[in-house]
Amino acid sequence: MHSILSDFIRQYESTRDLNIMVTVDTSWLEDHVRKQSSVKGPLSGKTVVVKDNINVRGLPCTCGSAFLKNYVSPYNATVIERIMKAGGIIAGKANMDEFAMGSSTEYSAMGATRNPAAPDHVPGGSSGGSAAAVAAGLTDYALGSDTGGSIRQPAAFCGVVGLKPTYGRVSRYGLTAFASSLDQVGPLTRTVRQSAELLQVIAGKDACDASSSETETEDYLAGLEKDTVRSVGVPFHLLEEGLHPEVKARFDETVRILEKHGKKIVEISLPHLRYSIAAYYILATAEASSNLARFDGVRYGSRNPGNGSTIDDFYAENREYGFGPEVKRRIMLGTFVLSSGYYDAYYARAQKVRRLIYEDFQKALNKADAILLPATPNPPFRLGEHLDDPMAMYLSDIFTVSVNIAGIPGLSVPAGHTQDGLPVGIQILGGLYEESKVLQLGNTLESLQ
Ligand code: GLN
Asked: Residue 302 half-sphere exposure, CB side, CA atoms within 13 Å?
């Protein structure tokens, strides 16, 4: 057995109780490692764990759903093709909230993942398996997807680095769509440099994804040490209430560190951010209700053995049987906000709020080179703590969803721990396609910690 493979398997076995991985197929892996060992590139000899909503040919793609537990991908997502071309090794598929809906990885049909830093706590979500895989030392890199924070929030909870690139910077071809106008694939890694390394490989126009951007990519590694960020915008008005005192303390400390390091701290205002959760849960559920219509037990998904007597019953029963409660809640909400009579009151209105949030960021970024926000309002919560209270779960996305709404890049970097040793993260935001800047400031912060 190849040493990369045996190292990975050993680490995987020793962390089984954390339930990080959904699929580790050793015979597929042996074959894959053999083929990849002749590919020379920037990722040669490096492993990548992949969130289970990104297609890898020959491996299951369950999306954390019972509906897709027997689905095996017939093709590779573009990001997977690019990683393979760069010599990387796809180690396996990581656990996630069903169809990427959630903030704790507890909404997975494959059971919850535990946080490697504090096993009775959640790892965040929905890319909780990917973040935990990095934190537990299972892999060099992981891929996640971020629709409203699903890379940055688990990165913060697990004490690793997570990047949501600009919308369209990375191809979504082969990513199972949740909310197509918000979804982005991105890296979860131990260091900011590794984040830049993986972005370098996966970013860029893809003919298979019409929403991927023509904008030239940059050399994300070359300028990493030359931090071009002079001024950092902080929306102090958002930090006055609702923030856990220890998260606030870590945030304030980070601001102090940056100021001492010569960054100019600029007060900015993001007045429409308080509408972002409401707008997000309208836009995201509306798009999800449409994207998930394909899961009907005919085109995709397993069938209910009962099988219904009419075609409508047949679909309804398959969906009743296949989807978990959170996915059903979102489909119902999304269908409602799109229904005639309510469309203008909810969906059309949320689109207007989307514009206002985007403009808030534009104005702030005219005053400062980058923006600093907490990644989450609270440190990681305990398993089960928010399970019966979807609203409390949704509110944990308060600092992340607006970034997807505006389409800008966001990087979550570790910012120390609470007194109980729970990881805390901080977010750096930049203008559209300014991944370089965001990574540079992240690199500076990392070096100052
Ligand atoms: N937690 C958010 C949600 O539940 C974000 C999910 C995501 O980014 N995929 O929708």
From this structure: 16
Q: With a threshold of 0.85, does the pTM exceed it?
A: yes
Residue 149 beta carbon below 6 angstroms from any ligand 1 atom:
yes
51 has catalytic annotation: yes
Domain 2-202 grouped into CATH 1.10.1740.10: no
Domain locations in the chain? 2-202
- From the candidates 65, 104, 145, 150, which is the catalytic residue? 150
Ligand 1 pocket mutation, candidates 51, 53, 101, criterion most atoms within 8 A of CB: 101
Q: Is the minimum distance from the CB of 146 to ligand 1 under 6 angstroms?
A: yes
pLDDT tens digits, 274-330: 999 999 999 999 999 999 999 998 888 888 776 678 989 999 999 999 999 999 999
Helices 276-291 + 349-367 axis angle, to 10: 130
- Asked if pLDDT for residue 3 goes beyond 70, the answer is yes
Query: For the segment 153-207, what is each residue's pLDDT rounded down to a tens digit?
Result: 999 999 999 999 999 999 999 999 999 999 999 999 999 999 999 999 999 999 9
Nearest atom in ligand 1 to the alpha carbon of residue 153 is: 1
State if residue 276 touches ligand 1 by the CB under 6 angstroms criterion.
no
- Look at the alpha carbons of 138, 143, 146, 149 in this order and tell me if their dihedral is positive or negative: positive
Which among 317, 284, 300, 293 is positioned nearest to 101, based on CA atoms?
Answer: 284
